[in-house]
Protein backbone atom coordinates (compact mmCIF):
# COMPACT_ATOMS: atom_id res chain seq x y z
CA UNK A 1 0.00 0.00 0.00
CA UNK A 2 1.28 3.43 -0.94
CA UNK A 3 2.31 5.91 1.75
CA UNK A 4 1.91 8.83 -0.66
CA UNK A 5 1.20 9.37 -4.34
CA UNK A 6 2.13 12.59 -6.10
CA UNK A 7 1.46 13.46 -9.72
CA UNK A 8 2.77 15.95 -12.24
CA UNK A 9 1.70 16.24 -15.86
CA UNK A 10 3.96 17.49 -18.65
CA UNK A 11 2.58 18.89 -21.90
CA UNK A 12 5.10 18.88 -24.77
CA UNK A 13 4.63 20.75 -28.05
CA UNK A 14 6.77 20.27 -31.15
CA UNK A 15 9.94 18.38 -31.94
CA UNK A 16 12.61 17.53 -29.39
CA UNK A 17 15.12 20.11 -30.63
CA UNK A 18 12.71 23.00 -31.25
CA UNK A 19 9.78 22.10 -29.02
CA UNK A 20 9.06 22.91 -25.43
CA UNK A 21 7.23 21.53 -22.47
CA UNK A 22 5.42 22.85 -19.46
CA UNK A 23 4.74 21.17 -16.14
CA UNK A 24 1.21 21.42 -14.88
CA UNK A 25 -1.40 19.74 -12.78
CA UNK A 26 1.09 18.81 -10.07
CA UNK A 27 -0.37 17.47 -6.85
CA UNK A 28 0.86 20.45 -4.83
CA UNK A 29 0.66 22.96 -7.73
CA UNK A 30 4.22 24.02 -6.74
CA UNK A 31 5.62 22.82 -10.07
CA UNK A 32 2.81 24.10 -12.26
CA UNK A 33 3.98 26.36 -15.03
CA UNK A 34 7.65 25.35 -15.01
CA UNK A 35 9.02 25.34 -18.56
CA UNK A 36 11.47 22.84 -20.02
CA UNK A 37 13.25 22.35 -23.34
CA UNK A 38 15.91 20.05 -24.73
CA UNK A 39 18.32 23.00 -24.66
CA UNK A 40 17.58 23.62 -20.98
CA UNK A 41 18.38 19.95 -20.39
CA UNK A 42 21.61 19.72 -22.35
CA UNK A 43 22.92 23.28 -22.67
CA UNK A 44 22.20 26.42 -20.63
CA UNK A 45 19.08 26.25 -18.44
CA UNK A 46 17.93 29.75 -19.38
CA UNK A 47 15.38 29.86 -16.57
CA UNK A 48 13.86 26.52 -17.54
CA UNK A 49 14.07 23.22 -15.67
CA UNK A 50 14.94 19.67 -16.72
CA UNK A 51 14.25 16.13 -15.57
CA UNK A 52 17.75 16.01 -14.09
CA UNK A 53 17.17 19.16 -12.06
CA UNK A 54 13.85 17.80 -10.80
CA UNK A 55 15.53 14.50 -9.87
CA UNK A 56 18.29 16.42 -8.08
CA UNK A 57 15.64 18.31 -6.11
CA UNK A 58 13.96 15.03 -5.22
CA UNK A 59 17.22 13.40 -4.17
CA UNK A 60 18.55 16.29 -2.09
CA UNK A 61 15.25 16.84 -0.28
CA UNK A 62 14.68 13.13 0.34
CA UNK A 63 18.23 12.59 1.61
CA UNK A 64 17.97 15.56 3.98
CA UNK A 65 14.78 14.07 5.46
CA UNK A 66 16.35 10.62 5.81
CA UNK A 67 19.43 12.11 7.46
CA UNK A 68 17.31 14.15 9.86
CA UNK A 69 15.42 10.99 10.85
CA UNK A 70 18.61 8.98 11.35
CA UNK A 71 20.19 11.76 13.42
CA UNK A 72 17.11 11.75 15.64
CA UNK A 73 17.42 7.99 16.13
CA UNK A 74 20.91 8.71 17.50
CA UNK A 75 19.51 11.40 19.82
CA UNK A 76 21.07 14.16 17.70
CA UNK A 77 19.46 17.13 16.03
CA UNK A 78 20.96 19.14 13.22
CA UNK A 79 21.09 22.89 13.54
CA UNK A 80 21.49 22.93 9.77
CA UNK A 81 21.82 20.42 6.94
CA UNK A 82 22.76 21.42 3.40
CA UNK A 83 22.36 18.60 0.89
CA UNK A 84 23.26 19.31 -2.73
CA UNK A 85 22.54 16.73 -5.42
CA UNK A 86 23.98 16.81 -8.92
CA UNK A 87 22.22 14.40 -11.27
CA UNK A 88 24.11 13.63 -14.49
CA UNK A 89 22.82 12.81 -17.96
CA UNK A 90 25.60 10.95 -19.76
CA UNK A 91 26.15 9.11 -23.02
CA UNK A 92 26.20 5.42 -22.14
CA UNK A 93 26.68 3.11 -25.11
CA UNK A 94 25.25 5.76 -27.41
CA UNK A 95 22.15 6.38 -25.30
CA UNK A 96 21.43 9.37 -23.07
CA UNK A 97 21.34 7.86 -19.57
CA UNK A 98 20.85 9.30 -16.11
CA UNK A 99 23.70 7.43 -14.50
CA UNK A 100 24.87 9.37 -11.47
CA UNK A 101 23.73 11.38 -8.51
CA UNK A 102 26.48 13.03 -6.51
CA UNK A 103 25.49 14.27 -3.07
CA UNK A 104 27.38 16.80 -1.00
CA UNK A 105 26.23 16.91 2.60
CA UNK A 106 27.24 19.61 5.05
CA UNK A 107 25.81 19.54 8.52
CA UNK A 108 26.05 21.40 11.77
CA UNK A 109 25.13 18.82 14.41
CA UNK A 110 25.95 19.69 18.02
CA UNK A 111 27.36 16.72 19.92
CA UNK A 112 28.28 14.65 16.84
CA UNK A 113 31.81 13.63 15.97
CA UNK A 114 32.92 13.58 12.33
CA UNK A 115 33.12 9.77 12.44
CA UNK A 116 29.63 9.46 13.94
CA UNK A 117 28.23 11.93 11.38
CA UNK A 118 29.77 9.95 8.51
CA UNK A 119 28.28 6.73 9.86
CA UNK A 120 24.82 8.29 10.18
CA UNK A 121 25.10 9.71 6.65
CA UNK A 122 25.74 6.13 5.44
CA UNK A 123 22.62 4.98 7.29
CA UNK A 124 20.60 7.76 5.65
CA UNK A 125 21.82 6.65 2.23
CA UNK A 126 20.41 3.18 2.83
CA UNK A 127 17.09 4.64 4.02
CA UNK A 128 16.46 7.40 1.46
CA UNK A 129 13.77 6.15 -0.97
CA UNK A 130 15.16 8.23 -3.85
CA UNK A 131 18.64 6.75 -3.30
CA UNK A 132 17.01 3.32 -3.49
CA UNK A 133 15.17 4.34 -6.67
CA UNK A 134 18.55 5.27 -8.18
CA UNK A 135 20.02 1.91 -7.06
CA UNK A 136 21.29 1.11 -10.57
CA UNK A 137 23.06 4.47 -10.82
CA UNK A 138 26.28 5.55 -9.20
CA UNK A 139 25.57 7.54 -6.05
CA UNK A 140 28.44 9.28 -4.31
CA UNK A 141 28.21 11.15 -1.03
CA UNK A 142 30.72 13.63 0.33
CA UNK A 143 29.83 14.59 3.89
CA UNK A 144 31.31 17.33 6.08
CA UNK A 145 30.43 17.96 9.71
CA UNK A 146 30.66 21.68 10.43
CA UNK A 147 31.81 22.98 13.80
CA UNK A 148 28.98 23.98 16.14
Mean residue pLDDT = 95
The helix content is 25-40%
Question: How would the global form be characterised?
Answer: elongated
DSSP strand content: 25-35%
Q: How many helices does DSSP assign?
A: 4
Q: Describe the oligomeric state of these chains in a short phrase.
A: single chain
Gap between N and C termini, in Å?
41 Å
> What about the largest sheet?
3 strands, antiparallel
The counted number of beta strands is: 6
Strand order of the largest sheet: 1-2-3
Structural class, by secondary structure, is: alpha+beta
Rg, Cα atoms, Å: 18 Å
> H/E series, N to C?
EEEHHEEHHE
Uncertain residue segments: none
Structure at a glance:
This protein is of the alpha+beta class and 148 residues long. It is built from 4 helices and 6 strands; from the N terminus they run βββααββααβ.
Q: What key phrases describe this protein's structure?
A:
alpha+beta, three-stranded antiparallel beta sheet, three-stranded mixed beta sheet
Protein model, in words:
There is one protein chain. With 148 residues, the chain is of the alpha+beta class. 32% of the residues lie in helices and 32% in strands. It contains four helices and six strands, in the order E-E-E-H-H-E-E-H-H-E. It has helices at residues 38-42, 51-73, 114-127, 129-133, and strands spanning 9-13, 20-24, 35-36, 80-92, 95-108, 138-146. A three-stranded antiparallel beta sheet has the order 1-2-3. A hairpin with a 6-residue loop joins strand 1 and strand 2 (20-24). The longest helix is centred in the middle third of the chain and has 23 residues, at 51-73. The protein is elongated and about 55 Å long. The N and C termini lie far apart (41 Å). The mean pLDDT is 95.
